[in-house]
Amino acid sequence: MSYQKKYLPLVLGVAIAAGIFIGGKLSFTDAPDRLFSTNSKKDKLNRLIDYIEYDYVDDINTDSIVDVTVNGILENLDPHSVYIPKEDMSRVAEEMKGDFVGIGVSFYTYKDSIAVIRAIENGPSDKAGIKGGDRILLADGDTLYGDKIDDNDLVKKLKGPINSKVKLTVYRKGVPKLLKFTVKRGKIPLKSVDAAYMITDKLGYIKVNRFAESTYKEFKKALSQLEDLGATEIALDLRGNPGGFLGIAEQMVDEFLENDKLILFTKNKRGDIDESYATSKGDFEDGKVYVLIDENSASASEIVAGALQDNDKGTIVGRRSYGKGLVQREMDLGDGSAVRLTVSRYYTPTGRSIQKPYSKGHKDYYDEYFDRLNSGELLDPEKIKVDDSLKFTTPGGKVVYGGGGIIPDVFVPIDNSMENETLAFLQRRGFFGNFVFETLENDRHAYDAFSKAEFINKFKVGDDLVYAFQDYLNIRSDSKVTFVAYHDEVKQYIKATLADQLFGGGAFYEVFNQRDIMIDEVIKLSQGE
Question: What pLDDT, on a 0 to 100 scale, did the predictor assign at position 262?
């Protein structure tokens, strides 16, 4: 065998290995002088973590160090590039997917047990016979009550693989023996359409709380149902909606815009532009639309409002929106965690960016609401600061502005009664919900004679319930609570919460919106006033 033949396999092997090494280092944007270089920044971080893991005097959880490092890096970027630890990924994925596998009850921890507020209509528990007021004591023999129960542990025990069965032991008030139920777990929707109903004979209402994977299907179903009921106008309520998937917003806008109308375009750091256009499949192109926004309407909500406003379609009603014009992409970090990294900016059809400044840091960025409050902008549209250099004109001749949110066509000031911060806080923290649950516990059958429509239109909350709610809060608070100035508003919160726990299906908003000044403004616009 010749020298060349003898060593040929070795030479080929070395060549292949070198090729694999070079291929791993190369990207299409690499310059030749970088081919064999190392990334000193990455090496520095890796070495530091290795030194701490192997040589530091004390045992340290290096995973937590990495988390701190990642968060520290992202804090130097924009406010919307965020890290998602692996322990949060499942929850975040469920929220954006729009469903999860479970038994289908809304509940809260009441005293020392799981109290069912309501079984989701046609869900697994509803089909099995679980009712509002039931206490779930055991799941497959595991105890679900006691002083140290944790909501996360409870959820884990009630969730499981789809179509798997769980045996529940339930206490029901008035029934002498514990009840046994076998519930087959199924897909439970995390609804993003909170309510859909007719406000007037021609005006329908749809409340959307986020833009998840399931949102467009929910929205489309609600829109079709309202059209069947005679809706030729839609009030699309995006107040408080923080956004979500850009593609879902595009689909929603497409229902209102004619074929080939520009919805938005995005631009990345390299200047690459991606445009999105409406198609001919929209079902509400001939109808009127009113989009309700406020200072907490962000991201995908602003895409919807901006696309319709810039195409002279419909009317934007409310207050200046949040001002988020950045697009994120979720990227896997290889250990079950991920980062949502800002990869581009989006622009409305006229070419405006509505991203508010973030150069002064994250705290100032998130505190900008207080600047609006202190300036009086939430009460007076003349206090909204606009930059003439960011002035744009729609095809219909309407002047619009970029630089920090969508400015509505019709301004509605903040309602200091129904949007009272104290009442909103009590609602968010569950005080109204807990009080109403205990009220129903005293006599659930007192409301059996009411249909949903009769309750919404005819039931009146008495003064006694307001005083009982005051007493309920005073037991749980060091300070004396009274609602002299907000007596009627408290009644509205109580009635809306009662409607929600008794009937679900958006009943809360059907009641609550009866005192909503922004809804009143939309009704006036619809009636040509």
Answer: 98
Three-state secondary structure along 341-394? EEEEEEECCCCCCCCCCCCCCHHHHHCHHHHHHHHCCCCCHHHCCCCHHHEEEC
Backbone dihedral region of 461: left (phi > 0), alpha (psi from -120 to 50 degrees) or beta? beta
**8-state DSSP, 213:** T
Decide if 103 contacts 183 (C-beta within 8 A): yes
State the Cα–Cα distance between residues 362 and 85, nearest whole angstrom: 20
Helix axes 487-503, 421-428, angle to 10 degrees: 20
Question: 424: helix, coil or strand?
Answer: helix
- One domain for residues 285 and 260: yes
Q: Tokens standing for 70?
A: 């990642």
Please indicate, yes or no, whether residues 290 and 438 belong to a single structural domain of this protein.
Answer: no
Positive or negative torsion for Cα 28, 29, 34, 37: negative
Same domain, 231 and 375: yes
Among residues 154, 189, 224, the one where a domain terminates is 189
Return the exposure string of 493-524: e unless at least 16 CB atoms fall within 10 Å of the residue's CB, then b: bbbbbbbbbbbbebbbbbbbbebbebbebbbe
Query: Is this structure's pTM higher than 0.70?
Result: yes
Write the CA distances from 166 to 103, 138, 178, 205, integer angstroms.
Answer: 9, 10, 16, 38
Which residue range forms the structural domain that includes residue 340?
193-411
Which of 171, 135, 111, 133 has the alpha carbon at shortest distance from 439? 133
Q: What is the pLDDT of residue 54?
A: 86
- For residues 392 and 460, membership in a common domain is answered with no
Domain count across the chain: 3
Backbone angles phi, psi at 184, to 5 degrees: -90, 120
Answer yes or no: is 338 within a domain.
Answer: yes
Q: Are residues 299 and 337 in the same domain?
A: yes
How far is Cα 196 from Cα 285, in angstroms, rounded to an integer? 19
d(CA 192, CA 216): 9
Coil/strand/helix, residue 235: strand
Report the pLDDT value the prediction gives residue 445, as an integer from 0 to 100. 84
Q: Assess whether 517 and 496 both reside in one domain.
A: yes
pLDDT averages per 10-residue partition of the chain, 529 residues: 44 42 40 49 82 84 84 91 90 82 85 85 91 91 80 78 93 92 90 96 97 96 97 98 96 97 96 96 95 97 98 97 95 90 96 94 91 94 92 96 95 89 88 91 87 94 94 83 88 96 93 96 93
User: Do both 308 and 440 map to the same domain?
Assistant: no
Give the pLDDT confidence score for residue 39 in this predicted structure.
Answer: 63
